[in-house]
Specification:
Elements (H helix, E strand, L loop, with lengths): L1 E7 L4 E3 L10 H11 L3 E5 H6 L8 E5 L12 E4 L2 H10 L4 E5 L1 H7 L5 E7 L7 E2 L8 E5 L4 E3 L2 E10 L4
Parallel strand pairs: 1-6, 1-7, 3-4, 3-6, 4-5
Antiparallel strand pairs: 2-8, 7-11, 9-11, 10-11
Bound molecules: NADP nicotinamide-adenine-dinucleotide phosphate (NAP).
């Protein structure tokens, strides 16, 4: 089963110059840890490069077209064929979490059954965006009340797929 996790601004912005557009938000970081710990993460090469390194207690599948890109690590697998890995992850019994960035979110959305979306109530200058999604295909639940941190207000939502049109 494929899920995804993302934090977005008011305009679905997710990144700027290879990083998140906002400062680290500690409650969002904790939420990300809770939703991903012990699971397999599927991500693009650029998102992997934006991390401090291989994340503890999670397996990483990194998508790259670059034949020179290799990562030797027991919790990393590099794949070249995105469609094939999406089909493989969709058929898996365990939850595999799409971790970004924009190109991987866009390609994986049709395969995803659950979305963990942190909505940040602010607008940012950005160069990467989460794709638009059809609200009619999803049932949404809010996970708790809005949180205010460093002057920013944000809230966690879980979307479960209810149909495919
Ligand atoms: N707000 C959030 O929750 C969040 C989460 C994750 C990321 N981000 C942000 O998103 C931005 C990165 O997103 P991005 O879209 O630029 O990069 P990305 O999706 O992380 O990675 C793009 C790379 O993935 C590989 N790739 C993509 N499609 C492929 C395909 N069909 N086949 C094979 N390889 C493929 C390519 O690697 P090669 O070039 O090696 O071939 C491509 O350059 C950063 O700013 C990051 O901070 C935000």
């Amino acid at each position: 089963m494929l899920s995804l996790i993302v934090a977005i601004g008011r305009n679905r912005e997710i990144g700027k110059d290879g990083r998140m557009p906002w400062p680290t938000l500690s409650q969002d970081f904790k939420h990300l840890q809770e939703k991903t710990m012990g699971k397999t993460l599927l991500m693009g090469q650029k998102t992997f490069e934006s991390l401090p390194g291989v994340l503890p207690k999670r397996f990483h599948i990194i998508v790259s077209d670059d034949l020179n890109f290799h990562k030797e690590h027991k919790r990393v697998r590099v794949v070249r064929d995105l469609k094939q890995i999406l089909e493989e992850c969709q058929a898996a019994e365990e939850e595999i979490v799409v971790f970004g960035g924009a190109s991987i979110y866009r390609a994986s959305l049709p395969y995803v059954e659950r979305m963990y979306i942190t909505k940040i109530d602010a607008e940012y200058d950005a160069d990467t965006y989460f794709p638009e999604w059809n609200e009619e295909e999803w049932t949404v639940t809010a996970d708790g009340d809005p949180i205010t941190e460093n002057g920013l207000t944000y809230q966690f939502f879980t979307y479960e797929r209810s149909s495919r049109t």
